Queue: 2 jobs
Job 1
Amino acid sequence: MRLACVEAGHGPREQETLAAIEAASGRPPSDVLKTLYYRSEIFGRPFSDVLDLAMRGESDWSPGERELFATFVSSLNQCPF
């Protein structure tokens, strides 16, 4: 399910950033990026901070191992990300 506000409800600054991403990559930004840039003060930044802590914070596992775990779980959930 896609929310119309996440597709087209970005402010001017976020629209500019998403357009730059599309220009640099040659394809539209992923739905994950669109979601992170939609009301980033509520969802994007806090979520990114927690994700960074989980993936790069102190742990017995290396960041690479954690990325591998995340990839495996995503594949089990049939998630393309």
Note: The longest helix spans residues 12-25.
Job 2
Amino acid sequence: MKLPLKWKFPVSKIENGELKEECLHREIKEELHNDIILHSALTMVEHHYADFSLQLSPFVCSLQSSEVKALEHTQAI
């Protein structure tokens, strides 16, 4: 992990042949054990650090269940 002990958005590299929306569904399921409903895409954001860059594709979405399980991290909402 490039920035340990920091809060982060659920994020993952898009797998070969995978759509951004599919990647987000997969990542939320893996990290929070929940399904989401995608409402709309927001403007892509790029951020440059000294040794790497990030390109984020944010979406407005909602959880299908209020039950969240932190499977990948020690803290959650």
Note: The first helix runs from residue 20 to 32.
